[in-house]
Design goal:
This protein is mainly β. The protein has four helices and 52 strands. 4% of the residues lie in helices and 42% in strands. The strands form twelve sheets. It has a seven-stranded antiparallel beta sheet with strand order 23-24-36-26-32-33-34. Strands 25, 27, 28, 29, 30, 31 and 35 form a seven-stranded antiparallel beta sheet that branches. It is globular, with a radius of gyration of 30 Å.
Length: 787
């Protein structure tokens, strides 16, 4: 670790002394400078107040709906006309404001990019406006994969230009091999002197295999002794890519923090990469791409230690050329607007595109709670509950090798053996895909214990072209994967095959969703909340015709096991949903011998009965203690019909009914009912339920670092209360432990984080508990380390 320099570090204001010094880090300041010249503030109206500077308090916590909308503009790298094009792919666009720093630049703006596959190489383009047109600098690459005696590597890629304010010189960081991030310096942005090695895998700790995709900026924390900070991507021996933070006094030697800043979650898939620092309306964000094929954003504090929830900042519209994966974001502003530069397309077939911030566009709100996540209440016409004695041949008309099928319909489920074959040899039970958008969900029970036992959903074109979403026992253990195979070759499974941990129980719910252009995978471990899984599949590339459940084990010696599918349900079309909604109406009561309308019944609820918690799962009880009976009961929640139940007539004896209600988030719910018979209808008095315990109870933190030696365990205990389904423990804002929890409200739950090698000082820990209704955060716990 380099020692702290004796010279003083130049004082840095929160917005930077030169708002154009850094690209994305300085985007907001530059946007304000340019917008004020035009009489408006970027993203706001002419009368809007300037946004809060970095570090100032934000009046309200931002939400995903507060993020701006970027509209697709076009392609920058025309592969047919680019002179340096060794591999037909370009990645990682990085914009530098040459006119603000260089004496005689080729143009106002420089754009660095290049291929990743060998030999790689850094390409320079330039333009007088961010809107283009962009011209390629002839004689590229400006940095190659061989450089005198300094290095000779298979490729160099991902140039990150950074104007060094202490040296008044351009630094460009790049990687080559993937294990090493290097840097070069320049006075003109075209001709470079080799600088040295900035960060290697050795600095990332044991088990780190990659150190690449760096972005560099002035440190946003004015209290930090470091002048500069870096986001970069590492990779682990488990093939999980994460975002790390490195810090530097001089931009040459770097200290790497021991823990990652961003670890991929369910929304991202197995990998996150190409992180950048971006400021919007006074809030810092870390923006990056992921296995999801989208560009995500998380709020981040000035110290670069704590991030917020994962949001989607940008994704392809699916219209025209604006399709496929989006990655490596770089947001920059000039007098013509604010632009998002990014790579688009398959990992080794990408090109560079750009989008422009539309100040008038409104981001679509995040989806609400799905009232029917398993399509129990309403499903499409092609759905099959597997409750007959044989499969309907009209529904299952697209199968392959069905004459060899050994499936059974058993106890209301479709049971498949794991055939000793792959997709190209196993019997396949398939339904035809409809035109346009569609969505299919299934519930599967399977327990793979030996390599290549697997079961799930198959999206089928032919035996060499398909996508499959399945639970499989791979060579390294249990995996939950969404894999595309075209022309007999799998897409890189490292991006789409994820270890599910201990979240898989007796059942697993799998879903494939298509908008007509792509097919998205999602998974539920509880039957209520679905998480996106892996990357979207391009349907133009695959051209599938059928879908269905499958089970197999390949040509292996693994024993045959069974997979049980409880049902396969199509999400209803708009017309089918309308028909379902119309079906849930209060019917006419059947003819009976009653002489009067029903008596007045009473409604009660069991909310809080079991353990005093109003957690959103309870029953509504109907009681008619004595009098004329009713044959139909209609229950309303906040004025919306939610259940219609039939009752047996036993006038004048009592009638009672229990209607379950589950999964309600915190809020107030008023229930009312109508009891009917052939003579009329009688309303009940309403009953109100206030749900205020739906989110998990608050955990309490403790530690055992009594000797102060830096090796200890932090324990989060929920002694009693509404249970969580997952947890995270954060150390100084960085996740150090996370996983799934089994909910058994109101029983105790516990999660731990074991840490070692902590430096002397005070470290602060926070625990987060999450369930479908929300997240609860513990009080912080400070743990002193003395030696």
């Amino acid at each position: 670790m380099p020692s702290t320099p004796t010279r003083s570090v130049k004082a840095r204001t929160r917005t930077g002394e030169d708002p154009m010094r850094t690209r994305t880090r300085g985007t907001l300041a530059l946007a304000v400078t340019a917008a004020l010249a035009m009489g408006v503030v970027a993203g706001g109206s002419a009368t809007a107040a300037p946004p809060t500077v970095v570090g100032a308090a934000v009046s309200e916590a931002p939400t995903q709906e507060d993020l701006p909308v970027f509209q697709y503009q076009g392609i920058i790298t025309d592969k047919e006309t680019m002179s340096y094009n060794p591999t037909d792919e370009y990645i990682f666009p990085s914009v530098f404001h040459a006119g603000a720093h260089l004496e005689d630049p080729l143009a106002e703006w420089y754009l660095y990019l290049g291929p990743h596959d060998a030999p790689g190489g850094i390409v320079l383009m330039y333009a007088d406006s961010l809107a283009g047109p962009w011209t390629e600098h002839e004689g590229g690459p400006v940095i190659a994969n061989e450089w005198d005696d300094h290095y000779s590597v298979s490729h160099v890629a991902t140039a990150e230009p950074f104007w060094h304010p202490e040296e008044d010189r351009l630094y460009v960081y790049f990687h080559g091999e993937n294990t090493t991030t290097r840097y070069a310096t320049s006075s003109d942005g075209v001709h470079f002197d080799y600088g040295g090695v900035a960060v290697t895998t050795a600095q990332g700790g044991e088990g780190i295999t990659e150190t690449s995709y760096a972005r560099v900026f002035e440190h946003p924390d004015a209290t930090s002794p470091y002048a500069y900070a870096m986001f970069y991507m590492d990779n682990t021996t488990q093939d999980i890519r994460r975002i790390r933070v490195a810090e530097s006094y001089d931009g040459r030697e770097w200290d790497v923090r021991p823990e990652p800043l961003v670890v991929p979650g369910a929304a991202e898939g197995q990998n996150v990469s190409s992180a950048n620092l971006w400021e919007w309306e006074g809030q810092l964000y870390v923006i990056y791409h992921a296995s999801s094929g989208k560009i995500h954003a998380r709020t981040v504090d000035d110290a670069l230690t704590e991030t917020g929830p994962t949001w989607t900042l940008h994704e392809a519209s699916g219209v025209g050329d604006d399709t496929g994966r989006v990655a490596a974001p770089d947001i920059v502003t000039d007098e013509t607007g604010t632009y998002l530069f990014y790579e688009s397309g398959d990992r080794l077939g990408a090109t560079i595109k750009y989008a422009k911030l539309d100040p008038d566009a409104v981001r679509e709100p995040a989806p609400g709670v799905d009232p029917d996540p398993l399509r129990r209440q309403c499903s499409g016409a092609a759905s099959d509950e597997f409750d007959a004695t044989a499969l309907d041949p009209e529904l299952w008309s697209a199968g392959e090798r069905t004459e060899a099928s050994r499936h059974e319909l058993r106890d209301g489920s479709l049971v498949l053996p794991t055939y000793r074959a792959g997709v190209n040899g196993a019997p396949l039970l398939l339904q035809e895909l409809p035109d346009g958008p569609w969505e299919v969900t299934t519930e599967v029970s399977v327990a793979p214990t030996e390599p290549f036992q697997q079961a799930g959903l198959l999206l089928y074109a032919d035996d060499a072209n398909y996508a499959k979403l399945d639970l499989v026992h791979g060579s390294a253990g249990l995996r939950l994967e969404y894999i595309l195979r075209t022309n007999g070759s799998d897409r890189n499974t490292g991006f789409d095959s994820v270890t599910p941990g201990d979240r898989v129980g007796d059942q697993l719910w799998l879903r494939l969703t298509s908008d007509g252009d792509t097919a998205l995978a999602s998974v539920s471990f509880d039957g209520e909340t679905f998480e996106p899984w892996g990357r979207p599949v391009d349907l133009d590339r695959l051209s599938p015709t059928a879908i269905g459940p499958f089970a197999m084990r390949g040509a292996t010696a693994a024993p045959e096991i069974e997979a049980s599918f409880a049902w396969l349900r199509w999400t209803p079309t708009a017309a089918e949903q309308t028909a379902c909604d119309e079906e849930l109406t209060v019917p006419e009561a059947p003819a009976d011998d009653e002489s009067a309308a029903p008596g007045r019944a009473v409604l009660r609820t069991t909310s809080g009965w079991a353990h005093g918690l109003h957690d959103g799962s309870f029953e509504v009880l109907l009681d008619l203690w004595w009098g004329t009976n009713g044959s139909v009961f209609a229950l309303y929640e906040n004025g919306r019909l939610i259940a219609v139940e039939e009752l047996a007539l036993r006038t004048p004896h009592a009638q009672s009914l229990r209607v379950p209600v589950t999964g309600r988030p915190d809020g107030t719910y008023v229930y009312s009912g109508v009891l009917l018979n052939s003579r009329g209808a009688t309303e009940t008095a309403p009953v109100t339920v206030v749900v205020d315990d739906a989110a998990p109870g608050t955990p309490v933190l403790s530690h055992d670092n009594w000797d102060g030696d830096g090796a200890f365990t932090v324990t989060a205990n929920l002694w009693w209360g509404t249970n969580a389904t997952s947890y995270r423990i954060l150390e100084d804002g960085v996740v150090v432990a996370e996983g799934a929890l089994t909910a058994a409200t109101p029983g105790a739950q516990q999660a731990t984080a074991t840490v070692t090698g902590r430096a002397p000082g005070s470290h602060t820990y926070v625990a987060e508990l999450t369930n479908a209704a929300g997240r609860t955060v513990s009080a912080p716990l400070a743990v002193p380390v003395r030696r």
